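Bumping my old thread because nobody answered last time. Still need a sequence for this structure:
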């Protein structure tokens, strides 16, 4: 282990599902001896059907963290427009360790989850991030709780890579 790391969990969560997953990840990281903070990306005009003219209330600063985990919901088979806007407004991630996850209602990853993760990874790599781990939680799946546990284990383990 690299020692105690300060980890930012930056999430956009409209219904609370993505935030719930973030809280599980935070607890896991703290149990591993790290510092972990959840910061939410929110929009002034938080309307899920509105994909244009979005304005962010705040842009969490990732420079204060040793590593970052991003989380967002899938919207219309794509990454949440609020998270897309947030990522576009970040300057460089300068090789920072990054992990990403999405939550989606549909039961199969190919129903928007995989596309959203690909968008997440591409945006982060454009900003020169070192993307190490990704994950998808299918909210309507009967295995949802196991998916959340497995995701928190996988995303927490990226810290030690």
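Sorry it took so long. Here it is:
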């Amino acid at each position: 282990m690299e020692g105690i790391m300060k980890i930012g969990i930056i999430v956009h969560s409209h219904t609370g599902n993505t935030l719930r997953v973030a809280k599980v990840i935070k607890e896991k990281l703290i149990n591993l001896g790290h510092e972990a903070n959840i910061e939410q990306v929110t929009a002034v005009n938080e309307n899920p059907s509105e994909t244009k003219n979005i304005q962010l209330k705040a842009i969490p600063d990732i420079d204060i963290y040793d590593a970052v985990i991003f989380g967002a919901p899938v919207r219309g088979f794509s990454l949440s427009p609020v998270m897309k806007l947030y990522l576009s407004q970040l300057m460089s991630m300068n090789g920072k360790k990054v992990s990403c996850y999405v939550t989606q209602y549909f039961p199969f990853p190919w129903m928007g989850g995989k596309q959203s993760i690909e968008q997440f990874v591409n945006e982060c790599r454009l900003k020169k991030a070192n993307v190490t781990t990704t994950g998808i939680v299918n909210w309507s799946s009967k295995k949802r709780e196991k998916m959340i546990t497995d995701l928190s284990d996988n995303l927490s383990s990226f810290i030690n890579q």
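Strands lie at 6-11, 35-40, 67-75, 78-79, 97-104, 130-138. Let me know if any region looks off to you.
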